[in-house]
Design brief:
This protein has one domain. The chain is mostly helical. About 50% of the residues lie in helices and about 0% in strands. It contains three helices and no strands.
């Protein structure tokens, strides 16, 4: 799952060094527009529909937080 999430992150920001960051938002790797694109990409890649109430900063600060979010919808 982490590999697919990293692929999704890189599709939004190909230059992003996501593996070197503990906080994508504070490190400037993702902004609000990027998060919207990422949610759309994750929805398609994992065949899920992320609720608007789950689109919070805490769910997009790291690969692990995104794994937790996607897992909530995929039951993995």
């Amino acid at each position: 799952m982490k590999k697919k999430i990293l692929e999704s992150l890189l599709s939004v920001r190909p230059e992003g060094e996501f593996l070197k960051s503990d906080n994508f938002i504070l490190d400037g790797l993702l902004d609000s527009f990027d998060v919207v694109l990422l949610v759309s990409n994750l929805d398609k890649k994992f065949n899920i529909s992320i609720n608007g109430t789950d689109i919070t900063i805490d769910n997009f600060i790291s690969i692990n937080s995104i794994v937790g979010l996607v897992s909530k919808y995929t039951n993995n």
